[in-house]
Write a structure and sequence with these properties.
heterodimer; A: five-stranded antiparallel β-sheet; five-stranded mixed β-sheet; 49% strand; B: mainly beta; four-stranded antiparallel β-sheet; 11 strands
Chain lengths: 112, 117
């Protein structure tokens, strides 16, 4: 059973603050670690992803930190904006078009 | 980038009728398509996986006779909810992967809100 645990379940951050969301997995065969962003009434969209050969990846205000030994990776949103308010899902998997197992999701609210 | 178009975005149907949802890959060949169901404030739950030209593989607990999936071409998959009932009301999302998809395999449609009355 592929277990993916995401925390926190919800998060409120003031504008300009840092949002941190965590994802823990069990399957050591996973080799791709993405975060998806979903707005209400829309499908998820790939936000940022990392491969296990690096420990950190930054794209603009979004950073993934990866800890292979702990089987965890996290999403950091710097200078959080109200437009970042959405639900975020991790979905680690093995490449090769296998089915995704989504984390439970984190509802982020960035207050103005 | 890879684009997946899903239609309709919203549909309301009467109990007992059938509803078809379409999922199209616009700029790549979708060799595999996935159908998800999402209840309010919950995560996405995989319903089935379909490969072009083959029968869909359904997840445990998903009724294959109620949720008919067709993946007859490399750009189109359909989900038909047969004899819909109010408990089938949900948000349905498709995802496509295949040759030419730069998102390391997965691009999602915008979802379909199904309400059965």
């Amino acid at each position: 059973q592929q277990q993916v645990k995401q925390s926190p379940q919800s998060l409120i951050v003031q504008k300009g603050g840092i949002s941190i969301i965590n994802c823990a997995y069990e399957n050591t065969a996973f080799d791709y670690f993405p975060w998806y962003q979903q707005f209400p009434g829309k499908g998820p969209a790939l936000l940022i992803a990392i491969r296990p050969d690096v420990s950190e990846k930054k794209e603009g205000r979004f950073t993934i930190s990866f800890n292979k030994s702990a089987k965890q990776f996290s999403l950091h949103i710097m200078d959080s904006q109200p437009g970042d308010s959405a639900t975020y899902f991790c979905a680690p998997h093995s490449t090769g078009f296998q089915k995704l197992v989504f984390g439970t999701g984190t509802r982020l609210l960035v207050s103005p | 980038g890879a684009v997946v178009s899903q239609h309709p975005s919203r549909v309301i149907c009467k109990s007992g009728t059938s509803v078809k949802i379409e999922c199209r890959s616009l700029d790549f060949q979708a060799t595999t398509m996935f159908w998800y169901r999402q209840f309010p404030k919950q995560s996405l739950m995989l319903m089935a996986t379909s490969n072009e030209g083959s029968k869909a593989t359904y997840e445990q607990g998903v009724e294959k006779d109620k949720f008919l999936i067709n993946h007859a071409s490399l750009t189109l998959s359909t989900l038909t909810v047969t004899s819909a009932h109010p408990e089938d009301s949900s948000f349905y999302i498709c995802s496509a992967s295949g040759t030419g998809n730069s998102n390391y395999g997965y691009t999602f449609g915008s979802g379909t809100r199904l309400t059965v009355v």
